[in-house]
Design a protein that fits this description.
Length: 331
């Protein structure tokens, strides 16, 4: 059945700080695959990227200033997030996503996807526009997309969106039967242990803007406060998470984050939720020793041995996705 061209128009909301030149690729890629608009919330109002992209077609650039903070206060989520604004970036992300829902509705968009500036929405062999248009008659209010986590293959990487193609496959999507040989291989690779992903594995979500009463539920999901809603999980389109691709990216990320607490919102233990990597990276960069941080990156992040990579791919633990790079080459 043909899908009406203007149905299912989707936008993206992202909170970012110090993204640098890769932001151009983030914007170009998502507009190229059919997203109608991108709402960029700059967590630092003096971020040099803000002025650079502010007038770009298809982009709304919003600084973290007094006007935004006043807008936050009008949101239903403010009561739960207001006490954490200064020390919890995810509190600001939640409020920015809720504010973006209002902005997106006012512009007539149908869906809003919440991702970070080091992530891409990946529709293998298709487009985001076609995917969201296909959801128009589906009885769903939110759609969650599984995430893959990037594996850098060297120390020096510039624009990771254009250079990185190797990813950890979510265990639920690994179609290769786990064998004793595969298990031994998996356990022997530090970059995949003790936790397969260094960061989250819960995917990221989009919300139908016409669904009443919906709002962000953390940074991964949307929900209807105090009521039922219709969630779905899509296993054909994905989030590609280019986490700390290149040593400079690791150093910049944790220098920017600084000495954050061991628990989110003072109650969710980070190590228990996602493992210890995030805290260990914080600590090694926080000591200011680039040599030690580089050794940490080489031991726990990058996989540089092509023979090992091929073996991990053969067992379904890793996969290559060159299509985003190819799309960017054509933009």
């Amino acid at each position: 059945m043909a899908v009406e061209k203007n149905k299912g128009r989707a936008a993206i909301v992202t909170t970012l700080r110090n993204a640098g030149p890769v932001l151009d690729s983030f914007i170009a890629y998502h507009l190229a695959i059919g997203f109608a608009h991108i709402f960029l919330f700059f967590d630092d109002s003096n971020d040099p990227d803000l002025a650079r992209v502010a007038g770009r077609a298809g982009v709304t650039a919003i600084p973290h200033d007094s006007q935004l903070r006043e807008a936050w206060k009008t949101l239903p989520q403010y009561g739960a997030q207001g006490d954490f604004l200064e020390r919890e970036v995810m509190a600001r992300q939640v409020l920015n996503a809720a504010h973006a829902m209002e902005l997106a509705r006012a512009r007539g968009f149908d869906w809003l996807l919440h991702i970070d500036a080091d992530e891409l929405f990946y529709a293998p062999g298709g487009s985001a526009a076609d995917h969201f248009a296909s959801l128009e008659n589906e009885p769903v209010d939110t759609v969650n997309y599984p995430n893959y986590e990037a594996v850098p293959e060297r120390e020096t990487i510039g624009d990771f969106f254009r250079e990185v193609t190797l990813f950890k496959v979510p265990p639920e999507l690994n179609r290769v039967k786990l064998s004793p040989e595969g298990l031994r291989l998996l356990k022997s690779v530090k970059q995949l242990n003790p936790d397969f992903f260094h960061y989250y594995g819960a995917g990221k979500s989009a919300v139908r803007l016409a669904a009443p009463g919906m709002g962000p539920e953390g940074v991964h999901d949307f929900a209807r406060a105090g009521g039922d809603f219709r969630p779905a999980r899509n296993m054909h389109n994905f989030i590609l998470h280019y986490a700390v691709c290149g040593f400079d990216a690791l150093w910049r990320k944790y220098a920017t984050l600084g000495r954050f607490a061991d628990a989110w919102w003072n109650k969710y233990d980070i190590a228990a939720a996602i493992g210890t990597f995030h805290l260990e990276a914080r600590d090694v960069v926080g000591r200011g020793n680039r040599e030690a941080a580089l050794a940490f990156y080489a031991e726990w992040v990058a996989i540089t041995d092509p023979v090992l990579i091929e073996a991990l791919m053969a067992h379904g633990f890793l996969a290559r996705f060159p299509e985003p790079c190819q799309i960017l080459r054509n933009t």
